[in-house]
Amino acid sequence: MAQKNKKSRFGNPAKAAADAAARGKVAPSSADERLQRAMESLAPGFVAWLEEQSRPNKSIDTSLLILDDFFDMYRIIEPKTDPTALVPEAVAEVMEVTAHANPLGVLTLRAGVRDYVNYLAHATLWTGSADDLATIQAELARTGRDTAEGFDDGFDEEPAVEDYEFADVYIPELTQEQTLEAVLEAPLWKNAMALLDWIGDGKDLAATAPCRTGPAPRPP
Q1: Region 183-210: what's the mean pLDDT?
Q2: Is 82 helix (H, G, I), strand (E, B) or coil?
Q3: Residues 7/165, Cβ–Cβ less than 8 Å
Q4: pLDDT digit string (tens) for 14-32?
């Protein structure tokens, strides 16, 4: 298990290193600028392709964020990045590093990049070889996690809890007055009180209802 020095979207130290390097640059390199321009030209078509598949807006936004994270890591391994002709070995290395850092995060990363590569193939924008495309698609189709012995499709061993990164959950402590105020403002409480006000003291049914001691009258 790779030691995690900094947190990132996928718990990947390579991503954290890329962010730190990017923040430290006075001006982006020409290679970074070319990658940015290329992705800006590809993004509208990719978004339209996702919309055609009835993807919700939140899912589309997530896919774009995943691509940002992926290329931050990928360009460290493959500085001369061509976003329409990915190198299979570099893609596999990004997935391997992410799998060691966050076994769950790599599943999301693979799914997002798989959508992008499938879009390139569908729109005939892929400029690499057919063999490279097939190799990358096979890598991204994996649903298990990498182990020291190789790839494990079956999840035979449950990863330890400490291997995952969970979002911090803050539960505020409320005073008795704050709790009572919240209850009184709840719609369920207000509806219940309104119903009781409408019923009032009720009605004495025993005083007005007819009392029958004999058999019910027969119809004529």
Answers
A1: 73
A2: coil
A3: yes
A4: 555 555 445 444 445 677 7
